[in-house]
Structures are given as C-alpha cells and as structure tokens.
Design goal:
The chain has two domains: 31-219, MutS, DNA mismatch repair protein, Chain A, domain 3; 225-444, 3-Layer(aba) Sandwich (Rossmann fold). Helices cover 50% and strands 14% of the residues. It has helices spanning 8-13, 25-29, 35-45, 52-68, 76-86, 99-109, 112-138, 147-160, 163-169, 178-191, 193-219, 271-285, 320-336, 354-368, 383-388, 425-431, 434-444, and strands at 225-227, 233-239, 250-255, 260-265, 295-299, 303-307, 341-345, 375-379, 395-405, 408-417. Helix 13 links the parallel strand 6 and strand 7. The longest helix is centred in the first third of the chain and has 27 residues, at 112-138. The protein is elongated and about 95 Å long.
C-alpha cells in the first residue's frame, strides 16, 4: 500500500485528533463499541492511502455497511472477556478416549476460579458465534458483500462445523455440560485458536467500519469519486465544515492548469474555516471515507501539508516568522521530491512586517504557480500581493466579502470570485468598545 504523507502539524491544523475545542474528526467518526474496534479505527486514521484500488475497496466496504445498516450486536464486555480467556495460562485439556477421567483430573487440580473463568470463556464465545451467524444469515443488502464478510462467513462455518462445537452450538451455552465445555475449550484455545483470533480481528474491522458508516448517515456525507489521473485535481460541490451546526457550503476547484487558489477577505469572514474544511475533505478522501460535501472528485494525491495554526517556539528562541520559514522549508522539501501534494497556507507570513510579508508572499506564490504537479490554497491579509499577481492565469482568485449594516459587520461566508479589499480590523476594535474603555481610563488620569 502506497503511503500518504501527512505530518503532526497538518493533523493538528485540521483537528484530526483532539483539539482545544474538544472536537476532532476522529471522534466525529468514532462510535466504536469494542476496544479492538477503536484500535482499528485509529489505525485507519493514521494510514491514509495513495492507491486507487485500495481506496475503491475501502469505499465498497463502507457502502456495504451503509446499505445494510446491519447491527452486529457487539458487546464490549463480551469481547474483553474473550480476549482475557484466550490468554489464560491454564492449558486446555486435549480430548482423549477416557475424556471423563481427564475432566475429573483437571477439576481436581485447577483452582475453582480458573474453572469458572474457563467455563465463562466458552459460554461467551458460543454466544458470540450464535449472534454472528444470526446476523449474517439475516443480512439483506443491494450491494456486493465485501471480502471481509465472506471471509467471516467461511471462518464461522469452519469453526462451527468442528464436532465438539457443533454439538453445543444449537443449545443455550449455559446449559451445556462440563465435558462439552472442556472439549469446546480445547477447540477454542488450541485446535482452532488461529481461526478464533481471525474472527475477532474481523469483528474489530466491522466495528470500525460500521462506526464510519453511522457517521456518514448521520452527517449526510457523500463518497468522493477517486480518479487515476496523473494530473492532480480537486473538484468539490457544497463543501462544509463538519463541526459547524449550521454550516455554509461552498464550491472549490483546483487543477494543474489553475493550481493556486488565492483567498482574500477580512478577519472572521470565513477563510480559515474554509481552508480547514477543504483540508479535511482531502484527508478523508484518502482514507476512503465519505466527505462533508454534496459531491467531490479528486485525483489520488501523495500527501497534504498545512500551515494554519503554527505556534511560536519561544523555548528554542524562534519567532513566529522563523517558524513559518522553517515550515515552508519542510513543505518545499516534500514538493522537491516530485510528489503530488495538496498544500494549504493560511495568512502566509503573518509573523513579520508588511514589507517582508509582501515580498516573501509574492516570491513564494509566483513559484507555486510554476509547480503544476501540486495544488495550493493560500490566504493572505495583504491584498496588494493579490493585485500584483492578478494577471497570473494559474491563480484562481477567491474571496469572502463582508458587509456593514447599522455599524455591525455581517458575514455571509460565501466564497466569491475576485479579490476582497475589505479591512475591518479597526471597526471590530470599535464594536468591542476597546477604544471607549481605554479613553475612559485615560480621562481618569488627566
């Protein structure tokens, strides 16, 4: 499987895991029931894919669970106990001709609590197998079952067909005798332990994928179309940020011939939210997950790198601007490798003076336009940079407009064509009465 490149800074910027707002993309999709299911979902999140076939397969798996809406009735406590039972130190008793003597001998020398644990382990596995078979037999779907479901059916059939297990399978597990329990214990913890463990791994996979399916249904996410095009592009209709209660949706498009999206707009107009939304959608698409949009089509990319919430590093004596330069260097080195990257920079060079920010932004963005095997989304507070680059055909200029109504700022958060020259920093300062507060204090000192 080809590795998709994503680093800690990008994961933090997009709130893939925990964040200061206690919201994360992972938790948005996480309704897993079992510990193993949580682990599997976490593993999926940490390994985005850059292969069309792998992504297509993941999408088919999820579409199956969305279509079937199957409830496998997994129980965390049951699976936890089964895992404990399989690791017990007490050796399973091998069935022999004089099995009853072996059982009596075992009971005489095994502690009572161990005997109880062995009995409970057998009971819980039998209950799990019965539940699995019932669920699989009742599945009614309109799409082809993925390989993991067919594999689970085959493993379940093989395990149940074992003579010792088959004789107990159609009874209530708590009613089977001591001899049958001991025989099943040998099957589960020795003869067929590999199959038991394979079934558990498939259960955890199903738990993780079912969790993603539930999130897709709840949030009305849609699957992106994955393209094998060697030329990078992203087309999104009605993209929205998944954390917002009443999000405003926007469209976005980038391609090799117009590989830079240059966004301007006043503070709070919606730039950062849009950048995070498109970054999240690109990331989810490379997990094979549905995305927060009505439609999306994307070529397979090799990685995503963002700079949205870059912290200072005062402990190392680094300024914000120097950290920006180092971050840009890291991204430049990734790009130099010839990989198709999706790059997001929010408020490029905000950590330095206007003159340096202007010169640096102009130089970097002009170079971005020449690297047409990568896609760039850049926002800036320096409108003059946009005006200088307005003739560049590789740049798609987008903006968020702001209106003033009765002295109050109004943001519709709709992405529009063009360049915004809105500057309302002083208006915000006034609206929050900062000037009045300081004037009142100054007047007291006169």
């Amino acid at each position: 499987m080809k590795k998709f490149d994503i680093d800690r800074q990008t994961l933090d910027d997009l709130n893939i895991y925990s964040s200061s707002s206690h919201q994360s993309v992972f938790e948005l999709f996480n309704s897993t029931i079992t510990v193993g299911g949580w682990d599997r979902l976490n593993e999926i999140f940490r390994r985005p894919i850059s292969d069309v076939d792998e992504l297509t397969n993941r999408q088919k798996q999820l579409q199956f669970f969305i279509s079937s809406k199957a409830n496998f009735h997994f129980k965390k406590e049951q699976l936890d106990y089964i895992e404990f039972y399989l690791r017990m130190y007490a050796q399973p008793v091998r069935p022999v001709k004089f099995m009853r003597i072996s059982v009596i001998w075992n009971l005489l020398f095994v502690e009572k609590h161990v005997s109880f644990q062995l009995k409970e382990g057998v009971v819980e596995i039998l209950l799990l197998l019965q539940s699995l078979k019932e669920t699989l037999d009742n599945l009614k779907v309109n799409v082809e079952a993925p390989a993991l479901i067919n594999t689970l059916k085959a493993l379940l059939t093989e395990l149940i067909s074992s003579e010792s297990v088959e004789s107990c399978f159609h009874q209530h597990p708590r009613k089977i005798g001591l001899l049958a329990t001991t025989k099943c214990d040998y099957v589960f913890r020795s003869e067929k332990i590999t199959i038991v463990k394979q079934i558990l791994e498939l259960i955890y996979e199903i738990d993780a994928l079912s969790s993603v399916a539930r999130a897709a249904i709840k949030n009305q996410f849609q699957f992106p179309k994955i393209s094998e095009s060697s030329s990078p592009y992203v087309h999104i209709s009605s993209l929205f940020h998944p954390f917002l209660t009443s999000p405003v949706s926007n469209d976005a498009a980038l391609m090799s011939s117009k590989n830079v999206c240059f966004i301007t707009g006043a503070n709070m107009a919606g730039k950062s939210t849009f950048l995070k939304a498109i970054g999240i959608a690109v990331y989810l698409a490379h997990l094979g997950f549905p995305v927060p949009a009505a439609e999306m089509e994307i070529s397979v990319l090799d990685g995503i790198a963002t700079t949205i919430n870059l912290p200072d590093d005062l402990g190392l004596g680094r300024s914000h601007y120097y950290n920006e330069v180092l971050r840009l260097k890291t991204v430049a080195e990734k790009i130099k490798e010839g990989r198709n990257f999706f790059v997001i920079f929010d408020e490029l060079f905000r950590g330095t003076n206007v003159k340096d920010a202007y010169d640096s932004s102009l130089a970097i963005i002009e170079l971005f336009t020449q690297i047409n095997d990568c896609l760039f989304v850049v926002s800036t507070h320096i409108v003059e940079v946009a005006e200088k680059l307005v003739q560049k055909k590789e740049i798609d200029f987008k903006c968020f407009k702001t209106e003033v109504k009765d002295g109050e700022l109004f943001f519709d958060r709709k992405l529009k064509n063009g360049i915004s020259e809105d500057r309302f920093g002083f208006q915000i300062l006034k609206n929050e009465n900062v000037i009045d507060i300081l004037q009142a204090k100054a007047s007291l000192l006169k």
